[in-house]
Structure of ATP-dependent DNA helicase RecG:
Amino acid sequence: MIDISVKNMKGVGAKTAEYLDKLGIGTIRQLLKHYPIRYLEYKPPTKIAEVNRDEEIVIKATISKNISLTGSNKKIATTKLTDYIDVIDVIWYNSPYLRATLKQGESYVFVGRFSKRSKNTLEHPIVYTIEEYEKKIGGFKPVYALTAGINNNAMEKLIKLSFDYIDDKDFEEYLPQSILEKFLLESRILAIRNIHSPKNKSKLFEAKKRLAFDDFFRFLYGMNLLKNKRLRIKSKNIISNEVRYVEEIKAVLPFNLTKSQENVIEEILNDMSSGIVTNRLVQGDVGSGKTIVALICLYLAVKSGFQGVVMVPTEVLAKQHFKSMSEILNKLENPPQIGILTGSMTKKEHLIVYEKIEKGEIDIVIGTHALLVENVKFKKLGLVVTDEQHRFGVRQRSTLSDKGEDVHVLVMSATPIPRTLAIILYGDLDISTIETKPVGRLPIKNAVITEEDREKAYKHILLEIKKGHQSYIICPMVEESENIEAENVLDYGKKIADKFSQNCKVEVLHGRMHQKEKDDIMSRYLNKEIDILVSTTVIEVGVDVPNATVIMIENAERFGLATLHQLRGRVGRSELQSYAIFVRTSNSNIAKKRLEIIGNSNDGFYIASRDLVLRGPGELFGLAQSGELDFGIADIYNDNDIFDMAKKAVDMIQCGDMGDEEMEKLEIKINNYMDLHYKKLAL
Ligand code: ADP
Ligand code: MG
């Protein structure tokens, strides 16, 4: 019965069904899965004098005056309440019936808030008899996502009612007993009951644990199936791991590869030459040298007769990679053909590149999202690299690799993410980590300053410029705004140019400029024709100008820690001592705390973990809210323990010897789940 329409429930008419439909609820199952978004605790009542007038309050009080009905329709009920110390007013809208139910001289429990207009008026409180309320104390009232036409009480009633239409079979257990016992999991049906009306904290906890476990378990199990399937595919796409090709590139590099880079290259090449389809994440903090790793792999793909493609999130970065990779490749005796494809190129230019890619005249193409369009067809695509992967949606990962057969995929990211999220986002991937930065890199020196110290900062910048180095100054805004008090690139650029006119060349850069202008400025900056670049965060990711040694970030508290760390990564890219100056223009505690973290550490992983604590779930990666990771009740940021249990359970099943019947049941469940969720994730 669980999959019948909600219309079959007693008292649910066409109108209610229509409202529910707006919440995506059509069946009883969907109604039961409409879990509360939060809970209100049934707290013990307090005295009026003790309440916090900005919060929801619970008081036990006596009705001290007959209820009067006012308003044009006599539907507004008002009276006074007292706890024999204080007296307050109370008002209910649209509730003439209260006159019959609430009696003068009787005591009740009232739960509600004070009116915004009158601080002594309790507005539309819920009323409980004292006995009724006492039974609830310590329990939780579920709060649901609602839509016009259904209020929270109505939703609560509907869900209660829906339990009459199901039986235990509807939530048959699919996990083996051994796992339930090991991880102390309650039954699903109990969990669903308790999630909607928990009697106390521990019941709520147990319910949440079971349901979150299910979310994680099915996801991880499904992911394992996918990975195993991938590992079983015998690929025809074999990329040579011949050392001589690696040596050819190494011979033309102006530096030696680090041990970390060598290891990662070896890992990838072993993968790509082994006859399986590679899906690998290359992780490494900013400046660890990921680009060259990608280039060597691309070169080997070309040597094996394939084409390769690199996708990056910004045009600035595409241009930069194109330039730096071309420079290296062109030193080879037999350089591969390299091309670029970005959104700002003309239609005609696009068509020319499309044709060359399709004919195989371009071996390696570097580009932005522009690569994803249907017209980009490869002759023989063998390797896809996505740089700064965290900037792309989870879904975009497969769009490019679908342009070839058994395509190997490398994704590169500097953004260190918590382990749980890494497994969720990249769990079907193997992971390589570039552990160290190139030798000779000095740790960046950080300073968090306030506005009074700006002059000192400028002096320092000038000093660096005198040594022949360059500097970035980052502002949050492009131009002046009426509403936001923060530095803007255009005014700041002028100010700095005036100030330093004799000593250095200043330019501005921001996202609203034409691409040609941006390119021109970036290449002049790279050629040391510009000393100070006043820019927005357009240079946040990937930009590589090793001669830049100072970055000064205005209104630093306005940026997230991850962004600040990425911005700081624009310096410290050579053996020169580099500096990051964070200008704090807010006195708030959170601003101070954040900047203290970035000022005291250069370690991306540490910063990410602190960021998570400060900013809380959801906000950090902009993923949870966008619905790309739809985990019902599990919270990918805070439910680490449950996540670990689910992971262990998956491992247990993988290695253990479950009965055929049990296994079959499990697989059916998982397959259903995959159908529902995987297409969406396109992992
Ligand atoms: P990221 O990991 O942030 O993408 P890049 O690949 O842009 O880093 O490399 C940062 C800088 O370090 C570049 O200028 C690059 O040429 C240089 N580099 C890379 N590997 C080495 C190395 N082994 N030794 C010295 N410099 C290196
Ligand atoms: Mg990079």
